[in-house]
């Protein structure tokens, strides 16, 4: 037997299923869709009255959820500290 036959590798971790592809996520999306249809058919006036508030609420929600894609390390200015200036001196 060779060395490769005796080595045991740990199984690779499986990727997590996105929340919207789980049964709970699908049920939540279905409930949200039904609520949107109900509100758009029977409570249009209430939705239109709340629209300015909903737009304002989107600002902090977008800030919370959309800043997850880039790291917040190195808040030291515009990032030019590591590059030399135009004359070639650091």
UniProtKB/TrEMBL annotation:
Region (Disordered): 71-90
InterPro entries in alphabetical order: DUF2933
Keywords: Membrane, Transmembrane, Transmembrane helix
Biased composition (Basic and acidic residues): 80-90
Record field: transmembrane: 20-41, 47-66
Protein name as annotated: DUF2933 domain-containing protein
Species in which this protein is naturally found: Azospirillum himalayense
